[in-house]
């Protein structure tokens, strides 16, 4: 295997093809291995969420979903293909998700962990004492919550308008609309009536 094919990359899903890759991982993990009913796995929240995809070369190996509420974000649907368990993929997905919610200005997050994975999640969150354990899709869960440190550089309502137009998670880098401004500036140089 060539070097570039063994490098793990975690990125925000931006295309339908990438979303299908994330769905493929979830299908294998939740529907095939955990026998979750299709209608419960695809619960109507996928198109209002941010998805992260972990890939090794072109192959999808893990995913996580993030939804946003007033004052907190919720981490959901963490899945890593069985042959890649025991690696750092799940940890890197969670760390990337927490970095993203921190950039967006969130300081609190929630999650529902299968009880057998509570130990894994305890690196970032604690069991929420307000909620008793509960069950759905034939598995036992606990509600957990955690905090991330605030960021002095988080995206706020005062951000430059072009920053707010940039792709999710890439607010520090010029985006396609930044480049359109450059095109507009050069076009006005040649517009009829422009001073020569």
Which keywords apply here?
single chain; 196 residues; alpha+beta; Aminopeptidase; 6 helices
Question: Can you put this structure into words, describing what you see?
Answer:
- By secondary structure, the chain is α+β, with helices and mostly antiparallel strands.
- The chain folds into 2 domains: 3-151, Aminopeptidase (3-Layer(aba) Sandwich); 155-196, no CATH class.
- Helices cover 30% and strands 27% of the residues.
- It contains 6 helices and 8 strands.
- The protein has helices at residues 16-33, 38-41, 89-103, 118-121, 161-165, 176-188, and strands at residues 8-12, 50-56, 59-69, 72-80, 108-114, 126-127, 134-136, 139-147.
- Strands 1, 2, 3, 4, 5, 6, 7 and 8 form an 8-stranded mixed beta sheet that branches.
- The chain starts with 7 loop residues before the first strand and ends in an 8-residue tail after the last helix.
């Amino acid at each position: 295997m060539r070097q570039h094919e063994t490098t793990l990359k975690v990125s925000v899903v931006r295309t339908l093809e990438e979303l299908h890759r994330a769905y493929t991982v979830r299908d294998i993990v939740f529907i095939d291995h955990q026998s979750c009913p299709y209608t419960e796995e695809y619960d109507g929240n996928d198109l209002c969420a941010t998805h992260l995809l972990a890939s090794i070369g072109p192959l999808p190996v893990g995913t996580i979903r993030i939804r946003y509420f007033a004052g907190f974000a919720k981490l959901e649907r963490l899945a890593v293909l069985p042959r890649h368990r025991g690696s750092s993929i799940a940890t890197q997905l969670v760390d990337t998700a927490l970095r993203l919610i921190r950039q967006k200005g969130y300081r609190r997050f929630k999650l529902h962990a299968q009880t057998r994975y509570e130990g894994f999640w305890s690196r970032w969150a604690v069991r929420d004492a307000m909620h008793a354990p509960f069950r759905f899709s034939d598995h036992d869960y606990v509600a957990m919550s955690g905090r991330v440190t605030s960021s002095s550089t988080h995206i706020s309502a005062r951000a430059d308008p072009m920053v707010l137009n940039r792709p999710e998670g890439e607010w520090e880098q010029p985006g396609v609309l930044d480049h359109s401004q450059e095109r507009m500036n050069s076009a006005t140089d040649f517009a009829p009536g422009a001073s020569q």
